[in-house]
Write a structure and sequence with these properties.
alpha+beta; Phosphorylase Kinase, domain 1; Transferase(Phosphotransferase), domain 1; 2 domains; 5-stranded antiparallel beta sheet; 3-stranded antiparallel beta sheet; globular
């Protein structure tokens, strides 16, 4: 097993959310730093859900792409389920955006790499379901890594982590079951917000939200609560006038098409 008990003893928390707690740890066999994602206790207690999650982890392991954070192992120690993931250096896109929008040229580069990751995943039938700046890392060399691909499909809601709007409602369950809300409020597609079945088009919508945000420094849909965000997503349009004057017309058009509320009118996120 990749993550030994010796590695686990040196865990350092990197953060937590609706999907569990992430730690930095040492892989003592290969002498490298890794990320350990501990899953909610409900996962370990439910054999069916754990098996379903393990199948999803295997599917993600088949996705070898330079813009996708890698997965090394699915393991269990003392009844605790966890994932061993690539530890990606650098800041998240959310951290970068705290200082405002990115220059247009840099924003285009980030979104091209993000779109490449989406395209590769969709070709393998993997849907992210929770694409947002906090799940996108930029290495010191400028390489974009999309994290947490497809891992939400087999998990269920963690109500204890639902306090912050930035984390809620990362509610996860079977991806095609009608009536279940998936994703983070500000980046949810209309079909997610309505609890309808989702497919790769929901990632295209979220891509459009991120594209708008990196160009403007503001979320495409504003709100203070989950209900506010959902209401804006279902009934309002982004403030397109906030896009920088130097934004290429093709990029403006791409953002507008990604954020069409009818999923039948969305475009493939092949990059601006």
């Amino acid at each position: 097993m990749l993550a030994s008990s010796a590695s686990i003893s040196s865990l350092k928390s990197l953060g937590s959310g609706g999907m569990g707690v992430v730690y930095r740890a040492t892989d003592t066999k290969l002498d490298r730093q890794v990320a350990i994602k501990m899953l909610p206790e409900s996962c370990a207690r439910d054999p069916e859900r754990r098996a379903r999650f393990e199948r999803e982890a295997r599917l993600l392991a088949s996705l070898d792409h330079p813009n996708v954070g890698g997965i090394y192992d699915f393991a269990e120690v003392d009844g605790a389920c966890f994932l061993v993931l690539e530890l990606v250096p650098g800041a998240t896109l959310a951290e970068r955006l705290r200082g405002g929008s990115l220059p247009v040229s840099e924003a285009m580069d980030v979104c091209r790499q993000m779109a490449a990751a989406l395209e590769a995943a969709h070709e393998r039938g993997i849907i992210h379901r929770d694409l947002k700046p906090a799940n996108i890392k930029i290495t010191p060399e400028g390489q974009v890594k999309v994290l947490d691909f497809g891992l939400g499909k087999a998990l269920q809601a963690d109500s204890a982590a639902a306090g912050a709007v930035s984390q809620s409602p990362t509610i996860t369950a079977e991806s095609t079951r009608v009536g279940v809300i998936l994703g983070t409020a500000a980046y949810m597609s209309p079909e997610q917000a309505r609890g309808k079945a989702v497919d790769k088009r929901t990632d295209i919508w979220s891509f459009g939200c991120v594209l708008f945000e990196v160009l403007t420094g503001r979320k495409a849909f504003a709100g203070e609560t989950t209900s506010d965000f959902i209401g804006a997503i279902l009934s309002q349009e982004p403030r397109w006038e906030l896009l920088p004057a130097e934004t290429p017309p093709t990029v403006r058009d791409l953002a507008a098409r990604c954020l069409r509320k009818d999923p039948h009118h969305l475009v493939d996120a092949s990059g601006p």
